[in-house]
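Form P-L/3: holo structure prediction, ligand MV4.
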Amino acid sequence: MPKRDIKRILIANRGEIALRIIYACKELGIETVAIYSTADENSLHVQLADYAVCIGGPSTKESYLNIPNIIAAAEAWEVDAIHPGYGFLSEREDFARIVEMHGLVFIGPTPEQIAIMGDKVMAKKTVKEAGVPLVPGTEEPLEDVEEAKRIAAEIGYPVLLKAAAGGGGRGMRIVNSEEEMEQKFLSASAEAEAAFGDGRLYLEKFITKPKHIEVQVLGDEYGNITHLFERECSLQRRHQKVVEEAPSPSITEEQRRKLLDYAVKAAKHINYRSAGTLEFLMDENGNFYFIEMNTRIQVEHPTTEMITGVDIVKAQILIAMGEKLPVDTKNLRINGHSIEARINAEDPENNFAPSPGKIELLHKPGGPGVRVDTHIYQGYTIPPYYDSLIAKLITWGNDRNEAISRMKRALSEFVISGIKTNIGLHLEIMNRSEFLSGKFYTNSLEKWISS
Ligand code: MV4
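OUTPUT (holo model):
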């Protein structure tokens, strides 16, 4: 018997990740309770869960962010635990705390760990104590424009202003010279205040042409931590990742050892529990710098699952039951290569405008090494209220070339009609020489799109 038996889980999310969590629960023999908004009545997570509760109107504030209604549903349906998925309430310290106050298990890290990593300045301070390198910059929030100018002069322009409460690029500004500082400082701070209710900023040396490489970790409540290797996530548009892969095609075995060691040291330092991801930038000299930690399951977790064989969502649930790390760490190794293409309902020809609507025709690709994580089905109408991710196409190959070949043939086979998608853009990416050679950075995709 586990330390804490979990027989029924409420899934505080929607879309493909709600399905992903239902799959893990079914395989573990755990019952599921879906929550849904009035706009999601016809969603697959409502159909596939054992029970489903409508908790509010279409806007996220009324439904997927509505803590009182979610807790009421959890109590009425007598669940033992809540899985928050990604986005929505997944990184809200207050939500994790409220769940625990109601005697329920929050499937994730502790509220304290969410709070530390949610404050990017505190996160950096904490990780630094563990001996992990940071980008040169401030270690406290900036007091005012004058302090920002003084510190930027010390470390040298260009610098990047970031929001302490940040994430997703909001409240972020590149500052190329002292003349630009005042205006950028004020606009970044105002943007952060509006977005997060917290206008505090910090500053870092701007790394030009960085690679974004992140490390998946898992921790249990007994202080055991393991890494599950790294993912390369450099291809982004407007701070949304578009293609991810595991392992990174652009680091040596020696660099990998160093990177993974940094991540495990940082996670051990805070006794991290559950699944988490440490984000690093790699500069052109191959140096790694910690930038932030995500305290949730991530969209791109399947790539890691494909190369390690570890079911990360099941691991989260078993850890929440009080089990020791459910991973055979002795035999952990990288098996092959995996790539994920995020398929969005958007129009690349029209500045990537959202393209909700009815899926008239759907054919999903299959065959060896192909996984499709999606909640769409033929006849389903994508509502306009939520994010545009409609499917994740994940391929696996014995090596990167095979994963890419499978991605190309799977993209070519994928049929989604009635709405616009970015499938064509993915095919273009898979044929880019820079992608094939691994010579791409966080700014590459936007350059390719605009040219
Ligand atoms: C950086 C950086 C360069 N130098 N930090 C973007 C989102 C957030 N998680 C961290 N991000 C970055 N941090 C330093 N010190 C480059 C990015 C970055 C970026 C910056 C400006 C405009 C577009 C960008 C796209 C990806 C990453």
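COMMENT: The longest helix spans residues 178-196.
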